[in-house]
Amino acid sequence: MIMKNLVLIAAGALAAASFILACSDDSPGDADAAVCDCPTVQTVRQTVPAQPIVAGGLANAQASCPAGSILLGGGCDINSSDFRLILAGFREPEGNNTPFYACEWKNDAVGTITVDMKVWAACQVP
Would you say residue 89 has pLDDT above 50? Predict the structure, then answer.
Protein backbone atom coordinates (compact mmCIF):
# COMPACT_ATOMS: atom_id res chain seq x y z
CA MET A 1 0.00 0.00 0.00
CA ILE A 2 2.78 2.46 0.92
CA MET A 3 4.67 1.57 -2.26
CA LYS A 4 1.55 2.21 -4.38
CA ASN A 5 1.08 5.66 -2.79
CA LEU A 6 4.74 6.54 -3.40
CA VAL A 7 4.42 5.54 -7.05
CA LEU A 8 1.29 7.73 -7.43
CA ILE A 9 2.98 10.70 -5.78
CA ALA A 10 6.08 10.29 -7.96
CA ALA A 11 3.93 10.02 -11.11
CA GLY A 12 2.01 13.20 -10.18
CA ALA A 13 5.22 15.11 -9.48
CA LEU A 14 6.67 13.99 -12.81
CA ALA A 15 3.53 15.07 -14.68
CA ALA A 16 3.54 18.49 -12.99
CA ALA A 17 7.24 19.02 -13.76
CA SER A 18 6.68 18.05 -17.41
CA PHE A 19 3.81 20.55 -17.73
CA ILE A 20 5.82 23.36 -16.17
CA LEU A 21 8.81 22.69 -18.44
CA ALA A 22 6.61 22.46 -21.54
CA CYS A 23 5.03 25.87 -20.94
CA SER A 24 8.11 27.63 -19.63
CA ASP A 25 10.27 27.24 -22.73
CA ASP A 26 8.87 28.54 -26.01
CA SER A 27 11.94 28.04 -28.17
CA PRO A 28 10.76 27.11 -31.67
CA GLY A 29 13.44 24.42 -32.05
CA ASP A 30 12.31 22.47 -29.00
CA ALA A 31 10.07 19.45 -29.35
CA ASP A 32 7.65 20.80 -26.72
CA ALA A 33 7.12 24.14 -28.51
CA ALA A 34 4.35 22.79 -30.75
CA VAL A 35 2.48 21.32 -27.76
CA CYS A 36 2.36 24.44 -25.60
CA ASP A 37 0.44 27.52 -26.70
CA CYS A 38 1.33 29.97 -23.94
CA PRO A 39 0.58 33.62 -24.88
CA THR A 40 2.85 36.31 -23.53
CA VAL A 41 2.19 39.93 -22.62
CA GLN A 42 4.58 42.47 -24.08
CA THR A 43 4.73 46.14 -23.08
CA VAL A 44 5.61 48.51 -25.93
CA ARG A 45 6.80 51.99 -24.95
CA GLN A 46 7.12 55.11 -27.08
CA THR A 47 8.68 58.40 -25.93
CA VAL A 48 8.51 61.69 -27.84
CA PRO A 49 11.04 64.02 -26.15
CA ALA A 50 10.90 67.84 -26.08
CA GLN A 51 7.64 68.25 -27.96
CA PRO A 52 6.43 71.88 -28.08
CA ILE A 53 2.66 72.32 -27.89
CA VAL A 54 1.52 75.80 -28.91
CA ALA A 55 -1.32 77.58 -27.13
CA GLY A 56 -4.57 75.87 -28.10
CA GLY A 57 -2.61 73.22 -30.02
CA LEU A 58 -2.69 69.44 -29.94
CA ALA A 59 0.10 66.87 -29.78
CA ASN A 60 -0.17 63.11 -29.84
CA ALA A 61 1.88 59.96 -29.57
CA GLN A 62 1.14 56.27 -29.91
CA ALA A 63 2.62 52.88 -29.04
CA SER A 64 1.94 50.10 -31.56
CA CYS A 65 1.59 46.41 -30.73
CA PRO A 66 3.24 43.78 -32.92
CA ALA A 67 1.11 42.68 -35.89
CA GLY A 68 -1.42 39.99 -34.99
CA SER A 69 -1.39 40.75 -31.26
CA ILE A 70 -4.29 41.86 -29.07
CA LEU A 71 -4.27 45.24 -27.34
CA LEU A 72 -5.00 44.78 -23.62
CA GLY A 73 -4.68 48.41 -22.57
CA GLY A 74 -2.20 51.22 -22.27
CA GLY A 75 -1.37 54.51 -20.66
CA CYS A 76 -0.07 58.03 -21.07
CA ASP A 77 2.40 60.17 -19.18
CA ILE A 78 3.80 63.65 -19.61
CA ASN A 79 6.52 65.51 -17.69
CA SER A 80 4.59 68.66 -16.94
CA SER A 81 3.00 70.10 -13.84
CA ASP A 82 1.07 72.63 -15.92
CA PHE A 83 -2.60 72.17 -15.05
CA ARG A 84 -3.73 73.56 -18.39
CA LEU A 85 -2.77 70.45 -20.34
CA ILE A 86 -5.73 68.20 -21.12
CA LEU A 87 -5.10 64.50 -21.74
CA ALA A 88 -7.32 62.11 -23.65
CA GLY A 89 -6.18 58.48 -23.92
CA PHE A 90 -7.83 56.16 -26.37
CA ARG A 91 -7.29 52.81 -28.02
CA GLU A 92 -7.65 51.53 -31.54
CA PRO A 93 -10.85 49.56 -32.21
CA GLU A 94 -10.62 45.78 -32.29
CA GLY A 95 -10.09 44.13 -35.64
CA ASN A 96 -7.02 46.15 -36.59
CA ASN A 97 -4.07 43.89 -37.52
CA THR A 98 -1.65 46.26 -35.79
CA PRO A 99 -3.48 47.65 -32.75
CA PHE A 100 -2.11 50.66 -30.92
CA TYR A 101 -2.77 52.80 -27.86
CA ALA A 102 -2.67 56.52 -28.55
CA CYS A 103 -2.75 59.63 -26.37
CA GLU A 104 -3.50 63.23 -27.26
CA TRP A 105 -2.71 66.33 -25.25
CA LYS A 106 -4.22 69.78 -25.69
CA ASN A 107 -2.52 72.93 -24.44
CA ASP A 108 -5.14 75.18 -22.85
CA ALA A 109 -2.45 77.63 -21.71
CA VAL A 110 -1.71 81.05 -23.19
CA GLY A 111 1.82 80.18 -24.35
CA THR A 112 3.78 77.27 -25.77
CA ILE A 113 4.62 74.39 -23.40
CA THR A 114 7.45 71.92 -24.15
CA VAL A 115 6.94 68.42 -22.76
CA ASP A 116 8.17 64.84 -23.04
CA MET A 117 5.26 62.57 -23.99
CA LYS A 118 5.25 58.88 -23.09
CA VAL A 119 2.78 56.23 -24.24
CA TRP A 120 2.75 52.51 -23.55
CA ALA A 121 0.65 49.62 -24.77
CA ALA A 122 0.16 46.21 -23.17
CA CYS A 123 -0.11 43.63 -25.94
CA GLN A 124 -0.96 39.93 -25.83
CA VAL A 125 1.33 38.27 -28.33
CA PRO A 126 0.25 34.83 -29.58
Answer: yes
